[in-house]
Amino acid sequence: MGLHERRQREKESIRTNILDAAFSLAKTEGWASLSMRKIADAIEYSAPVVYDYFENKEAILYEISLNGFHCLHIELLKAQQEHDTPEEQLKAIVDAYWKFAFKNKEYYQLMFGLGMQCSGKGMMKEEFSSFQDMLYECTLEIIKKKGSNQANACHSSHALFSAVHGLISIMMMRNDDIPSTMNKTTLDETVSAFIKSL
């Protein structure tokens, strides 16, 4: 390996370490307590080194949120590919989204700005629309099968996304006084009613 390749690999390693340290700190202390100084201490470098790789904390948060959306997209595709009908795919996609949110709370909070400012304000995230796009595709296919008005697919799928995200947000922000089984039951009933209504 040449000197240039070795330096590139070292740079990538430090960059990865910064992101890993930031995510690890967020899991133990919360996103609000994260700082460039704490990240630098965690990787045993000076703060200026961290600034060499990321302009500010916001840039780090944005990068981590993109990784979260990427991980979510993979889970959604797996769920979709396990089923053939749009009805079953829709149920599986929503279920995978729900499971991802509660298995990866730190990611989800950052991705959607729950209890904090959403990262990457003003920057488009292609991955952001993955769930909504898949909901739309399934909704449109169900509507076609039923011979309903296809023009309603966009509005209907957006309404479902709002309901799912709303239930998750309530659960995350009020998890001490709302039973998890109640919200999951509500979610399942909402999806079933949604499919029937199309």
What does this structure look like?
The protein is mainly α. It has nine helices and no strands. Helix 4 (57-81) packs antiparallel against helix 5 (86-103), helix 5 crosses helix 6 and helix 5 packs antiparallel against helix 7. The longest helix has 27 residues, at 3-29. The radius of gyration is 20 Å and the shape is elongated.
Describe, in short, the structure shown.
The protein is mostly helical and about 200 residues long. It has helices at about 5-30, 35-45, 45-55, 55-80, 85-105, 105-110, 130-145, 155-175, 180-195.
Secondary-structure blueprint of this entry?
Elements lengths: L2 H27 L6 H8 L3 H7 L3 H25 L4 H18 L1 H8 L17 H17 L6 H21 L6 H18 L1
Keywords for this entry:
198 residues, mainly alpha, 9 helices, elongated
The SS-based structural class is: mainly alpha
Helix amount: over 70%
Order of helices and strands: HHHHHHHHH
Number of helices: 9
Which geometry do the CA atoms define? elongated
Determine the mean pLDDT: 89
Using only CA atoms, what is the Rg?
Answer: 20 Å
Q: What is the count of β-strands?
A: 0
Poorly predicted sequence stretches spanning 5 or more consecutive residues: none
Approximately what portion of the residues adopt beta-strand conformation? Answer: under 5%
